[in-house]
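Sample entry (535 residues):
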Amino acid sequence: MNMLARIFQGRTSGTLQTQRQPGRAQVRNDARGFVYELDRWARVDRFLILGSEGGTYYATEKRLTQENAVNLVAAIREDGKRVVARVVALSEGGRAPRVQPAIFALAACAGFGDEETRRYALTEGLRRVCRTGSHLLTFCSYIEQFRGWGRGLRKGLRGWYEAKPVRELAYQVLKYQNREGFTHRDVFRLAHPLAADAERAALYAWIVKGDVPGDEHAALALLRAHATAKAAADADALTCAEIVRTSGLPREALPSAWLKEPRVWEALLPTLPMTALIRNLATLTRVGVLTPKGEYTDSIVARITDREALRKARIHPIAVLAALTTYKAGRGARGTGQWTPVSAVVDALDAAFALAFENVEPTGARTLIGLDVSGSMSCGAIAGVPGLTPRVGAAAMALTAVRTEKDVHVMAFSEGFVPFAIGKDESVASVVERTEALPFMGTDCALPMLYAIEKRLAVDLFIVFTDSETWAGTVHADEALRRYREQSGIPAKLVVVGMTSNGFTIADPNDAGMLDVVGFDTAAPALIADFARMA
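Predicted structure, serialized as tokens:
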């Protein structure tokens, strides 16, 4: 018999995880174990941050999306303005890996909310969440699921176009011409924005009819440059690069043949946004711009590791982790492109992963991190990133705590212990690689606390990364925490980091010493630190 099982053998305080604890409002999870149901608003947060792509081990993507949509609609009907405010806060704070769930939620608010909620969603919400032309077209593709093109929607969309300065709007409609089957021309035919001056009228004519504006419209020079680039699609590399360098055209507005030319990418670099830079590191390496001792390598590495630049660009750790795992592999998940990774770039992405989280001072708490590496954590994709399973993401996220805290211990568990120490100097790539090789088994989320009891460890803070699909233990996780407190005399706390957007948690909502946070929320490290410091 497992030594940890003996600790609770014969104790009336222990309840099998497949049974409900007496007197506690628990629900059955998808693995048939009993846990706590996440409250409506916490589940909204999980959906906005983690999304539902890929589903989970127990729930298909369709089912998980439906469950989250039902919960979202219930929240909108309870307090729609609160949902809009939450969507805006998470989006503007850069706390979610992808903006699509936030845009979906905003569209739902504009469809299912009361009049005040709809107005808020179509004014403040639309302006602050749909910051780019791509976001706006995505919103238009979602909104038709929830409502028709009534007066309020048309007014909101008109306001989006009319509020942007002409030069900025020209950049947005040129860079993002088509998304999710919608074009700006489609939106104009439905919303009918009004031009307040000749320059804006010329821009609108380009959107609707493709008319290239004349030289008298200085703010629309980018559109004229785009016409020049199209006419010179077969030009030599030097000419193409010079057009890019002098015009400032974005990558998306260039003929596709140009993007095979190193000189064109060199011309793009000074104005290439941070997100685009990180996404195109493989291409830059494949075409020969990024090499071990190349002219541009040092400057690119410096940009990737610029904390302030990462913050301003709202670069999420997921984006960095996805870029790191793909770039280091030397080949894409889709397609046949291959490249030889540059070690300096791999190291820079490793550093950028930590920098993309909010800077958090060490708590000083004696911390034990428990990583759920069971079979259910091996399925699904965080924020739709191929290969980024919940357990890979959990291990990578745990590394940030290892690097931050002075007194921290890491253990992995499933239905038993899995050795998985993480060193402070270990790279993200190494942690991810080791995680992917772990075996798949059942789940017992009580093991971190039982481990601390057995080893007589002094722990102030337990952090458990899990999907809460626990079922294999002889005692519940919250019971194990209470037992640890009794035996050690330490008022230990438990933070549960939810790695999927299901509706479950092992944290007892009635215990002030337990907290549930969302995995890969960029605010999570600060939330955990504040919770650990609370008396």
